[in-house]
Amino acid sequence: MNNELINAMGDLKRAKVMELVKKEIEKGTKPLKIIEWLSQGVKIVGDLFEKKEYFLAELITGGDIFQDAFEELKPILKEDIKTKAKGKIVFGTVKGDIHDIGKNIVITILRAAGFYVEDLGVDVPAEKFIEFIKKMNADILALSALLTMAIESVKEITNLLEKENLRDKIKIIVGGSAFTKAIADKLGVAFGKDPQDAVKKCEELL
Ligand code: B12
User: Fold this and answer.
1) Which uninterrupted H or E stretch holds 145?
2) Domain spanning 3-80: which superfamily?
3) What does CATH list as the number for 88-205?
4) Residue range 41-46: mean pLDDT, rounded
5) Which among 19, 49, 56, 191 is least buried, having the fewest CB atoms inside 10 angstroms?
6) What are the sequence ranges of the domains in the chain?
7) Region 75-100: what's the mean pLDDT?
8) Which long-range contacts link 66-69 to residues 24+ away (Cβ below 8 Å)?
9) Neighbours of 154 (CB within 10 A)
């Protein structure tokens, strides 16, 4: 555990975060491990925001530093993924939610693992997901949501899939801090907690 890195991320010390990330890369630490530490640091940012010690500007900075650090890790991520998979995935952050850092990480790793992933972006309406599922004849629908209220958008998507008689033809996986396994179970969908879990669950779903 690199507490210095976790705290530098939580304290929004961009230069320190970048320096420590580079050091970890040089040491040969696995990129997914570094992402785990950065995520713990960004969780501190979220918690301080909740306590009103940080404001929107800090939230934005936190996301931005994470994104910068992730760019450093991207080139070495591929080596960290071993898998047999392959299938077509439609991926997006659901309507009402614009968080995409986690989504982008999971997509990078799924692609590195050999999946074809169509990234529909953020704040994606249910109809657009359905359009792409049909167009691509996709195997899996992957949905990201960090806002609790965005869970409603997932229900809207599953309802529309039922209406279009597509629900049995597509597997659904959700992730992001709005979800727990219990919530996913209630919705009748799979849950992935991080990029490694996403690869594992998508392989199982196929
Ligand atoms: C950075 C950030 C922002 C940035 C987002 C920048 C961006 N481009 O994404 C900005 C500043 C824009 C933002 C805005 C807002 N935010 Co914000 N944000 C965060 C913060 C600090 C970090 C999120 C993050 O990027 N984490 C790092 C990534 C790597 O982690 P992750 O997203 O969880 O993803 C990982 C896993 O969940 C998983 N995963 C993610 N998606 C998927 C999908 C699948 C299929 C799978 C399998 C796995 C998976 O894998 C990822 C990698 O490990 C969180 C705090 C937190 N604890 O999450 C708050 C947080 C999510 N935000 C929050 C809020 C309230 C807001 C705002 C409403 C604030 C406001 N007043 O305007 C707006 C909402 C705007 C909107 N409509 O969406 C709340 C949500 C509360 C709730 N439960 O509803 C949080 C929890 C902060 C808090 N504690 O209050 N935010």
Assistant:
1) none
2) Methionine synthase domain (1.10.1240.10)
3) 3.40.50.280
4) 91
5) 56
6) 3-80, 88-205
7) 83
8) 66/9, 66/38, 66/42, 66/101, 67/101, 68/14, 68/17, 68/18, 69/9, 69/17, 69/18, 69/21, 69/34, 69/38
9) 23
Question: Which residues, judged by CB distance below 6 Å to any ligand atom, belong to the binding site of ligand 1?
Answer: 39, 42-43, 45-47, 49-50, 56, 59-60, 62-63, 66, 96-103, 105-106, 142-144, 146-148, 173-177, 192, 194-195, 198
pLDDT at 155: 96
Mean pLDDT, residues 89-109 taken together:
94
Burial 27-36 (b: 16+ CB within 10 A, else e): eebebbebbb
**pLDDT category of residue 76 using cuts at 50, 70 and 90:** confident
